[in-house]
Amino acid sequence: MNAVDLMTGQWLDEAGIGRGQRLLDIGCGPGVVTEMLARRVGPGGHVWGADIDAGMLNVARRRLDAAGLSDRVDLIQAGFDAAPEDAKGWDGVVGRRVLKYQRDPVAALKALFPALRPGGHVLFHEHDMVTADDPRADLPLHRTVRSWLRQMLEHEGAHLNMGHDLHRAFTEAGYKVEKVEARANVLTPDSDYPIAQIIAGVMPRLERYGIVKTGEVDTELLDHSLRQERRRAGATLVWELVFCGWARKPAD
Ligand SMILES: C[S@@+](CC[C@H](N)C(=O)[O-])C[C@H]1O[C@@H](n2cnc3c(N)ncnc32)[C@H](O)[C@@H]1O
């Protein structure tokens, strides 16, 4: 588990999401959060992982098969408004790094309403492009890699500060906010947060938008080079601010 997965687990604990529940992981991608949820709900619960991207669902399927958790998970190609009949009455909907990609996040949150039981939770986990380098340190590679991600998100029309908008979006969609919190994803000279894996995952998009040229980036070496840069500068920095907010559908 990386530093952000640990945050996800702690926030799920705090929101009381777990044993015996019926949950949707919206925008499940490769299924990292789906697997965490499937372990939490236990054999008495059930998890639906939904994504619009069939390729991602295949990756998620392999992950859940390998973990021996497929019997308590259904993976569906669907968006926020496409709950299958047998999936209705969710105790909670969880989404990590997905709300910021929605053209209208309030409408997306509203679309979850009918399939959520009264009193059920929505919990969204969004990374903001809020960063803080050590102003004394020279970190050009870190700045470059971050600018690739920022340019990609801008190109896709994503909401770069969705974390700051969580409270407003929940409220406008009709949910009762319980908490919004943020933690820093801090990189030290020794951190092993997998930035190269993230860049490798989005490389087709970076190349398609002309942000990097094909073959320009060696993702095998990237984490090593970033760590070397932090070590040389003795630098600790805030790579990103990670927000999580949760709210309930009113019980009446
Ligand atoms: C950045 S990935 C995050 C994956 C996963 N939640 C995680 O944190 O590991 C965003 C995912 O959301 C999916 N997605 C974007 N918009 C969606 C929508 N309207 N409905 C379902 N999935 C969506 C994308 O296909 C992608 O797999």
UniProtKB/TrEMBL annotation:
Name this polypeptide is given: Methyltransferase domain-containing protein
Claim: Lipoprotein is one of the keywords in the record: no
CDD domains per the UniProt record, alphabetical: AdoMet_MTases
Biological source species: Marinicauda pacifica
PANTHER family associated with the record: TRANS-ACONITATE 2-METHYLTRANSFERASE, TRANS-ACONITATE 2-METHYLTRANSFERASE-RELATED
Any one of the GO BP annotations: methylation
Domain of life: Bacteria
Keyword Lipid biosynthesis: no
GO MF terms, alphabetically ordered: methyltransferase activity
Keywords: Methyltransferase, Transferase
Pfam families documented for this protein: Methyltransf_23
